[in-house]
Amino acid sequence: MKYLVIGLGNLGRAIAESLTRIGNEVIGVDINPHKTEAVKHTISGAISLDTTDKDALNTLPLNEMDAIFVTFGKDFGTSIQTVALLKNLDVNKLIVRGISPIHEAVIRSIGVAEIITPEDDFAGMYASQSLLGELFKQWYRVTDTHHLYKIKAPVTFVGQTLQTIDLEENFGVRLVGIERPKTERNLIGLKQTQYSVIDKITGDLRVEEGDLLILFGKMEVLHRLADI
Fold first, then answer.
1. Residue 190 — pLDDT band, cuts 50, 70, 90?
2. Residue 196's beta-bridge partner residues?
3. Centroid of chain to Cα 92
4. Can you tell me which residues the record assigns to a coiled coil (predicted)?
C-alpha cells in the first residue's frame, strides 16, 4: 500500500519508518530539509515543501495514496491549513494527529473522522499499568470513556466459572474474549507458547492459570480488579 506522511517529527518519522518496514511504499514530507534528509534512506522517498501552499501540495501524488497522515505536534495553524487543503482536494483517507481539544474540534468540523492522540493514549496505558501492576498486559482506547484491556487472570479467578465471577456485575467490565496459552514444541524441539482465542463466552467456562482476559469497560472501574 502507499502512504504519505506529512510532518516528520518524532511521531511522523516513527509512523513512516514502521509502515516502510512492513513492506509499504511511504513518502515523507516536511518543510524542514534536515528532517527529510534524515529519513531518505529509511523510507521510499522524502520531499521538503510547504504543505500550506496549495500549489506545492498539488505536486504530491495525493490521489495515488491509500492514506495520508498529518502528524504535526505543535504547529496548530500549519496543521489546520494543511488538513483544510487536503480535504478540499478530496484525498482518499486522512488521519490527523490531534494537538489539543480545540484543534480536534476544528478538524472534526471540516470532516476529519480519524484522529490519533499519542500523548493521551500513552497516558491511558501508563495509568492502567500503574493501577493493575503485573496483571496489565495491553490497553486500547475505543472512545474517550471506554477502553479494551488485556489482563492476566487474577489468581483468585483460576478454577472458577465465569458465571461465579460475574465480571459485569461485580467489577463493571464486560468479558469479550480469553486468550488461552498452550505450550508446544517447535520443529527443532524448543518449547514455545501459543495462544488460542476463546470468543464464545459461556457461564460454565472456567478460568485457567495463564489465561489472558480481554475486557471492555471504563478506566475508573479497574480499581475493583486491582484490589483483588
1. confident
2. 180
3. 20
4. none
Q: Is 62 exposed, middle or buried (0-12, 13-18, 19+ CB in 10 A)?
A: middle
Architecture of domain 1-115: 3-Layer(aba) Sandwich (3.40)
| pTM score | 0.62
Task: For the chain, give the mean pLDDT.
Answer: 88
Angle at 52 between CA 50 and CA 56, to 5 degrees: 55
Distance between CA atoms of residues 47 and 50, nearest Å? 10
Task: Show the DSSP H helices in the chain as ranges.
Answer: 10-21, 33-39, 54-57, 76-88, 101-109, 118-132, 162-165, 167-171, 222-226
What distance in Å separates the CA atoms of residue 220 and residue 217, rounded to the nearest whole number?
9
Q: What's the CATH code, domain 119-225?
A: 3.30.70.1450
CA dihedral sign, ordered 14, 15, 17, 23: positive
Residues of the chain with CATH 3.40.50.720: 1-115
Rounded CA gap, 48 and 79, in Å?
16
Judged by DSSP in three states, 132 sits in helix
Q: Give the count of alpha carbons within 13 A of 36, CB side only.
A: 16
HSE-CB of 159 using CA atoms within 13 angstroms: 2
